[in-house]
Amino acid sequence: MDDTTDMMEALETRAKRREERRNFFRAFGTASALAGGFALTAKTNPAHAQSTPSDADVLNFALNLEYLEAQFYAYAATGSGLSSSLLDGSGTAGSATGARQVTFTDPAVAQFAREIAADERAHVAFLRDALGSSAVAQPAIDIGTDPDGAFSTAARAAGLIGEGESFDPYANDENFLLAAFIFEDVGVTAYKGASPLVSDKTFLEAAAGILAVEAYHAAMIRSTLYAKGIDAPSLISATEAISDARDSLDGDTDLDQGIAPAGSGSSLTSNIAPLDSNGIAYSRSYDQVLNIVYLNAAAATGGGFFPQGVNGTLNMSAQNS
Fold first, then answer.
1. Does residue 190 contact residue 289 with C-beta atoms inside 8 Å?
2. Where are the transmembrane segments (predicted)?
3. pTM, rounded to two decimals
4. pLDDT, tens digit (0-9, with 9 covering 90-100), for 208-234
5. Could you read off the pLDDT of 227-277 as tens digits, one per residue?
6. pLDDT over 80 at 11, yes or no
7. Distance between CA atoms of residues 115 and 213, nearest Å
8. Tell me, what DSSP letter sits at residue 97?
């Protein structure tokens, strides 16, 4: 039995342990049976967005993001993506392209990657179960290393690479962590943005549960980058550059922070949790999230990590340029 088989079996075992948890939510049926639930408003594009999207609309928006994260981590951790049984649905189906397994040198980072991969796969399975026949298919996803691809474009916007160069998130532990940093903070702000608008308590609990897991992931990635950044300060400065690039897309300069510490000497304070002055996590509306994953500050229906756009009704980014 090779290492890839071992890892895949470990992921399947972990997924089975989550079955009891998912069964709790499955009891509430498919999207046609959902009542109340999520309502997510657009911050800057009220003309194109519903003021109160249906529960299925919002769950499908979240599913698109989970496809992206799950495929990235699955390939990075195991060299294989999601099974075909987790990819079909309505809308234009596409493939996740360009990814490969990371040859990790830090055992802890490899273990983190496998844990997050299993969690994100579980999120995809849960959302698809909740949506039933209303679930959207996985759209085309770019998680490759091409100089003109999404990761390279994002890294270039942050000043991490120059024109014509490529950013390879699978090259080493540090690149993997920086690529994960791009996704995780955005996922937290996306779920946080929806949470005040959830009226059904069952789905509020589900949203809170996914938000908590995404926050754990983000803290795991940020903590690891911070620890490695003590010996390699360029990692810390890279997170600040990525944060600034995200803020340049979402139209709000107050929603993002890298991991640069504050103070000096005995008063030095880390910045693992990006919070406002009240110690509260930030929120993004769905179209602000699309600005970031489309890598476009303008109103668009595709680009970046989703070259053809996301599937579902909530598919246009905000006009922030």
1. yes
2. 24-42
3. 0.86
4. 899 999 999 999 999 999 999 999 999
5. 999 999 999 999 999 999 999 999 988 889 999 999 999 999 999 999 999
6. no
7. 11
8. E
The amino acid that residue 208 corresponds to is: A
Rounded distance, CA 235 to CA 213, Å? 24
Residue in the block written with tokens 């599913």 = 63
d(CA 64, CA 231): 36
CA-closest candidate to residue 39, choices 66, 67, 64, 59: 59
Between strands 96-97 and 141-142, the pairing is parallel
Sign of CA pseudo-dihedral 182, 292, 288, 245? positive
The residues, any chain, with a CB within 8 Å of residue 102's CB and separated by 6 or more, are 76, 77, 110, 113, 169, 170, 171, 172, 173, 176
The residues, ordered by sequence, that sit 6+ positions from 130 with a Cβ below 8 Å of its Cβ are: 25, 26, 28, 30, 31, 34, 59, 206
DSSP one-letter code for 275: B
CA dihedral 129, 119, 212, 231 (to 10 degrees): -160
